[in-house]
Amino acid sequence: MARSSGRAAEADKIRQLEEKAASKTAAVRRTSIRTVAAIAVVVAGLIAAVIFSPDPPGILYADLGNFHLSSIGETHTPYNSSPPSSGPHFGSIAAWTDHEDPVPAELFVHNLEDGGIVLTHSCAGSCGEVTDGMRATLDGFAGENVMMTAYPDIRDPEGVERLGAVVAWTRVYYFDDWSSDTQKNVRNFIRLFEGIDNHVSTNTGNRN
Fold first, then answer.
1. pLDDT on residue 184
2. Can you give the CATH number for the domain in which 94 is found?
3. In Å, how far from its chain's centre is CA 141?
4. Which residues of the chain have pLDDT under 50?
5. CA distances from 30 to 33, 35, 38, 124, 199 (A)
6. Shared-domain flag, residues 159 and 182
7. Please, are residues 40 and 177 in contact by the beta-carbon 8 Å criterion?
8. Pair (69, 170) in one structural domain
């Protein structure tokens, strides 16, 4: 009788252990499912962000390299955008300010190489709210690598004359007014591209 009771107790203990193990397995499975589901949600969110995020403002141009000129007047290959957004440039940079006199392209392209943003306008003096808005934007980014200059021949890829353009290395955003959309796009442009180092020290024929 005692032996029978002992066997029953042993069987009951084994059953309890099996139930406990099964419970742990189920808990692990539930945790794994929740983890996989959470990862799937995060991945889906990242994919959606990439698919539905708006393109950066501006037009992307081919990189013309970083060749340094010995003088601003030195003959060089033509730029592929107007205003220029990459290519041959002088060894110095222009001051990060609003320039009263037009800054030569060969000078401000070096500013772009150093991670700068150049606000340009084709006005022969003032374009009212356009230049006022550009100056206010420049003031809003005081202390960062942003400058402003007149540039007499702003043209988009179709050759159409434009009133203004904001330029980074290999990218130009053109505009003809200072609407709320223009202001937002210009500010986003500066936030996205200001401070990016564009030196290419490994390209043959480039001097940095």
1. 96
2. 3.40.30
3. 16
4. 42, 44-53, 202-208
5. 5, 9, 12, 70, 52
6. yes
7. no
8. yes
